[in-house]
Design goal:
Elements (H helix, E strand, L loop, with lengths): L27 H13 L1 H4 L7 E7 L2 E7 L6 E7 L5 E11 L12 E7 L4 E8 L2 E2 L4 E5 L5 E8 L11 E7 L5 E8 H4 L8 E4 L6 E2 L4 E5 L1 E2 L13 H5 L11 E9 L8 E3 L8 E10 L2 E11 L12 E7 L4 E2 L1 E7 L1 H17 L1 E2 L6 H10 L25 H14 L7 E2 L5 E2 L9
Helix pairs in contact: 5-6
Protein name: Permuted papain-like amidase enzyme, YaeF/YiiX, C92 family
Organism: Cnuella takakiae
Keywords: Signal
Length: 435
């Protein structure tokens, strides 16, 4: 599952659509058609589909309207309005794909061309794996290490440092499989630079029908999983800290935490190649009297290409997830013997485990360690992810979230130990290594 292409614009964007035009809500579609016609002329304006205009509200002062082309499947028009429906900017975009039409979860290569709404060329760039390469450039250097004045070379972005300008997002309705939709970075589209984290749908995104051809949908804010860039930890040094407290009289707990990529909607499975598939991690606690040891530990690939699918596993690493955000958790109070079983399982896995995106990822490891201390094993639903090669499905942070939600709704003895901290919460610091 690889991200599709969309556009990114430099800060020089549109000035051609800056005249003050206002309209009331019932007349949105008619007024947008008039704005486009006045700006582009009737012939060009008629190329766009006014029967399904997508409205994306980001804030009280930022509303976006997207129109697809009738004749070109990879062309669209975007208007940016303020809270009073004054037109701020507008752009028209054409994407030329290499190799013809591809599945929406395949990486896209090609060329993007962006004009102002009045026809001025703003950007034409090569596209590689969903990234607008002209937005990811570095100056080449001479042998003395001094930056060249003219030679500018595109570089391959690290997908775990910079999100692509276009992502593929999967939607899962209750009891059904995933469907997919293409979303574009609003920040990149309207001059906020590359790798934006707020996205709007190119193809409607499943928005609800509004008034006379107006469809409304919410923007998506995707979390970066930047902890993958942290240095690896020595798991044994972290777990050795618990040996400093006696087992007698100890209060121990293991908490399983999930961080979904789209905080507002756990049904949305973001393209893992965009580096934003969420994260699952563990919090281990042991307390004796006033002495408390807390360690937050997560599992990642050593390199950033967690986002790339391969038939072979890649080297894994463990990271201190201090202050990491989460959207749901299950805490389990355990005895000292159960606690030690979980620690031993984690030590065992840390000796040789490798990271495999669709067969043994952060969720697989965290659930396995958690289950090492349980009598009734926790099972979570497996999802088919784009590009996955495992027929049975893959463990995901969304799957864990959905399982915890189902357990909470069903009631039972563990309800009091399940937490949904509003939109999101954050764990405390870890104690760190003990040598």
């Amino acid at each position: 599952m690889k991200q599709m292409l969309t556009i990114a614009l430099l800060a020089i964007l549109v000035s051609g659509c800056s005249k003050e035009v206002t309209f009331s809500a019932p007349d949105v579609v008619t007024s947008i058609r008039k704005i486009v016609t006045d700006s582009m002329g009737s012939s060009a304006a008629n190329r766009y589909d006014y029967s399904k205009i997508t409205k994306v509200k980001v804030s009280e002062d930022s509303v976006y309207y997207l129109l697809r082309s009738h004749s070109e499947p990879d062309a669209f028009l975007a208007l940016w309005m303020d809270g009073k429906n004054l037109v701020r900017k507008g752009v028209r975009v054409t994407l030329d794909r290499e190799g013809g039409c591809k599945h929406p979860w395949e990486a896209m290569d090609g060329v993007i061309t962006v004009h102002s709404i009045r026809g001025n060329l703003l950007l034409q760039s090569r596209v590689r794996k969903g990234y607008i390469m002209s937005l990811h450039e570095q100056r080449s250097t001479d042998r003395m290490g001094i930056a060249s004045k003219s030679n500018v070379a595109p570089i391959e972005p690290d997908p775990y440092v910079t999100l692509s300008e276009v992502v593929v997002i999967g939607y899962r309705s209750e009891g059904s499989s995933y469907s997919y939709s293409n979303w574009i970075s609003i920040q990149a589209l309207f001059g906020g630079g590359s790798g934006g984290t707020t996205y709007a749908p190119i193809d409607g995104g499943g928005g609800s029908h509004g008034n006379r051809g107006l469809y409304e949908t919410d923007a998506i804010r995707i979390d970066d999983e930047t902890a993958v860039n942290l240095p690896p930890i020595d798991v044994n040094q972290y777990l050795d800290c618990f040996d400093g407290l006696p087992d007698a009289g100890a209060q121990c707990s293991i908490e399983l935490l999930t961080d979904i990529p789209v905080d507002s909607d756990p049904r949305k499975l973001v393209d893992w190649q965009a580096g934003s598939a969420g994260h699952t991690f563990l919090q281990l606690r042991k307390q004796v009297g006033g002495q408390l040891i807390v360690q937050n530990i997560g599992f990642y690939p050593v390199s950033s290409w967690k986002v790339s699918f391969t038939n072979a596993p890649v080297p894994g690493k463990f990271v201190d997830n201090s202050n990491h955000e989460y959207n749901a958790s299950l805490r389990m109070q355990v005895g000292a013997d159960q606690f030690r079983r979980a620690l031993n399982e984690l030590r065992y896995l840390a000796r040789s485990v490798t990271y495999d995106l669709d067969e043994f990822n952060c969720t697989d490891l965290a659930v396995r360690v958690f289950n090492a201390a349980r009598n009734n094993k926790l099972d979570i639903p497996l999802y088919q992810i784009p590009g996955g090669i495992t027929a049975a499905g893959t463990s995901t942070p969304q799957g864990l979230y959905q399982q915890l939600k189902a357990m909470y709704n069903a009631g039972g003895t563990e309800v009091a130990n399940i937490s949904f901290p509003g939109v999101k919460g954050y764990v405390a610091n870890s104690n760190g290594p003990c040598k």
